[in-house]
Amino acid sequence: MKILIVAIGRTGSTNLMRCLSETLNLKLIAEPFNTHFWRDLEKRKPTYKEGDPIPDNCVFKTMIDHNPEWLNKNVKNFSHVIVLARANIRELCISGVNAVKYGYYHEYEPTEIPYINNFVHEATKYRKLFQFAALHPKSKLVFYEDLYNKNTSIVENTLYWMNLGITKEQFNKMRDGYLSPSKRLRKI
Hints:
Helices cover 46% and strands 14% of the residues. With 188 residues, the chain is of the alpha/beta class. It has a five-stranded parallel β-sheet, sandwiched between helices.
């Protein structure tokens, strides 16, 4: 199984990638084309470099704007394609400006307010993401709000719709360990 997650920031893509990797016992490949992530946050070389074969049994996460040429060339090599967005662009922008202040993986109370330029910038990414999804019929468009929902049946239906062969036991593990609303970084 080769799963590709294509996302924009602040959509829970890292958490979903880790969740699928752990639950389905898949190798994790996180944002290999994100120089800032590897150089400044991880302080090591990426686990995948362009031109390498895509390993079997992996979950590969990239952002829509990191390497679109690679993405369009290699999407056919994945058995599953998850396109991850947030239905509420306002909440995405609030999360984005607060991540800059508090850190990308830290809990926060939203004290920062986005400007119109934040919305314009993110709207451009949404357009690219939706165009990508429209061009690749096997992609499944998934929303953050459906993964981190208080209503367990919405989360369960979303995961089953991805068609990854997730069992009820695996779902419960995913829900408890990763997809519970309590796992969201925004507090309040």
